[in-house]
Design brief:
Number of strands: 6
Structural class: mainly alpha
Strand order of the largest sheet: 1-2
Distance between the termini: 44 Å
Number of helices: 13
Shape: flat
Oligomer: single chain
Radius of gyration: 22 Å
Largest sheet: 2 strands, antiparallel
């Protein structure tokens, strides 16, 4: 693998903010403030970036843009590679709604449902079972655009497939590599299904801590706002549960014993500078005094802590 000069990554805070604003709005960044974007030292980096932009400017060429990045990201250098990775994610998110509409007609949903019951929800399994050429074209489009099929409450729909981004990790900045890991955990195995938590409480805590660490470690990352939003949902899950998996039972308002054990196990590894773990520690002390019963005082405490 080629080695690249990383000195350009030591950008001033103002320049980084400029990148963040541009990327979040989907704008193509070709300069940083008054400093041209000469970040990558690989001789072909600029050409790779320009070709990627040509594909990306046309929504119908999202497949080509994705394939091009997969095949040429190692030629781009860290700066351009990171930029293109974020732009690809922006483009996929922008296209997701329109592509979803193609899956919602009854005949498509029925075909996917029948195939799912036999072969699972992978594109390989679906295409093996579905023979209708029009539906096959839709599924192939979803596969090649980089979406993942998911189901909930009897509906089948596409989601972002962050596992597919892991091949970019050796070539991009560390914060975005960490972001991909966080998002892939959820896209590979969602935390909830039909308003119930379908992963262990230990895993709920682990994922929430990973988000908290990201926000603390990368406060100026282009994706910190996204992770903060996900962290809000994760913290609520951790302290309150969901409709079908409440943290406290509905009758006696007692804490789920498995969640109590998960809280205690998390604390055995130390608190460090984690606000989340410090909150758990204080919560357990309060629960000791109420015999694990949820009270208005506990609710007030958790809300004051941002839960």
């Amino acid at each position: 693998m080629k080695q690249y000069n990383l000195s350009i990554l030591n950008l001033k805070k103002g320049a980084l903010l400029g990148i963040a604003i541009a990327l979040s709005s989907g704008v193509v960044v070709t300069s940083v403030g008054s400093q041209p974007a000469y970040a990558a030292t690989a001789p072909n980096s600029s050409a790779v970036y320009k070709q990627f932009q040509k594909y990306l400017q046309q929504p119908v060429q999202l497949i080509q843009a994705r394939n091009f990045l997969i095949n040429h990201i190692d030629e781009a250098g860290v700066w351009y590679a990171t930029l293109m990775t974020l732009q690809l994610e922006n483009a996929q998110k922008a296209e997701l709604s329109d592509f979803s509409d193609k899956l919602y007609p009854d005949n498509v949903q029925k075909a996917i449902g029948t195939a799912f019951s036999k072969n699972g929800l992978t594109y390989t399994g679906l295409l093996k079972a579905i023979k209708d050429p029009k539906i096959r074209v839709i599924l192939i489009e979803g596969r090649d655009k980089g979406y993942k099929m998911e189901t909930s409450e009897g509906m089948y729909y596409p989601v972002m497939h962050y596992e597919g981004y892991k091949g970019f990790k050796p070539y991009i900045k560390q914060d975005i590599a960490s972001y991909i890991d966080i998002m892939a955990k959820e896209s590979n195995r969602p935390s909830t299904y039909d308003a119930g938590i379908v992963i262990s409480w230990d895993e709920v805590i682990s994922r929430t801590l990973a988000m908290e660490t990201f926000v603390r470690k990368y406060p100026t990352s282009n994706r910190v706002a996204t992770v903060k939003q996900e962290l809000t949902y994760a913290v609520s899950r951790l302290f309150y549960g969901t409709d079908n998996t409440p943290a406290y039972d509905y009758d006696q308002k007692k804490l789920d014993p498995e969640l109590r054990q998960a809280y205690e196990d998390a604390l055995t590894k130390g608190i460090g500078n984690s606000k989340l773990l410090a909150t758990i520690k204080k919560l357990l002390i309060m629960l000791d005094s109420t015999e694990n019963e949820f009270t208005p005082a506990i609710d007030k405490f958790l809300k004051n802590e941002g839960a």
